[in-house]
Amino acid sequence: MATIKQLMSLEGRVSVVTGGATGIGFQMATGLAEAGSSIVICSRKLENCEEAAHKLEAIGAKALAVGCDVTKPGDVEAMKDATLKKFGRVDVLVNNAGRAWVAPPEDMPLDRWQQVMDLNITAPFICAQILGREMIKKKAGKIINIASIAGLRGRDPDAYNSVVYATSKGALVNFTRDLAVKWAQHNIHVNCICPGFFVTPLNQKLYERNKEKINRDIPIGHTGGRDDLKGIAVLLASEASNYITGAIIPVDGGSVAW
């Protein structure tokens, strides 16, 4: 019987975190590194990835920075090759990269709709397919999709007016469920975290405009903090979650329970 420390340890593992240079992506990358995993940080801006990798190395982690547009299969293949060249394996994929476009549904530009869908749902498929092939070879892997509570319900347009964001995250939720079923035979666990409101550089202005309303809609009474996604990310990346797949887990201060 394994101890809980053994089950939660990520020593010897290699985790890829898309959009991991800033915000909640970097928070989760830090948690995985603190649990012992080597980390691959990828996003379109290489300099941001390098800065994040240096921060992880400063806490003793092995890290690789890769400039990668995850909507482009060629870039993802190159990221996979760089990962295998440096670390020789890939064990965990965190599909975190994402974006939103705020507009009333009747005014949503089609090109912006497509950009959001490309990054929020097509890119996770591309990354899962390309890195999943490596996981299938070794009959083991953990894929963690980062959706949102916006993908679980309709939301007040006064504070959250992005139908394309909600639609893409809802698609990611069911992509998680179906991929979990398809790849259970390969011992690949696929789960989904649905964060509530975490203040990041991307939504800081939205939060400032709607702070009172946003906080009022959270039973705990405040937005997510800088450590609040670490635990669930490590759990889903570790052997402690070996009997969990296809799960959709809100981390939202109780918002969807209200």
Query: What is the alpha-carbon Rg in Å?
Result: 17 Å
Low-confidence stretches: none
Number of strands: 7
- Separation of termini? 39 Å
Mean residue pLDDT:
96
Tell me the strand order in the biggest sheet. Answer: 3-2-1-4-5-6-7
| Gross morphology | globular
Strand content: 5-15%
> Looking at CATH, which topology would you report?
Rossmann fold
SSE arrangement, N to C: HEHEHEHEHEHEHHE
Enumerate how many helices there are, as a single number. Answer: 8
Tell me, what is the CATH class?
Alpha Beta
Reported CATH architecture:
3-Layer(aba) Sandwich
Structural class: alpha/beta
Looking at CATH, the homologous superfamily is NAD(P)-binding Rossmann-like Domain
Q: Percent helix among the residues?
A: 40-55%
Report on the biggest sheet: 7 strands, parallel
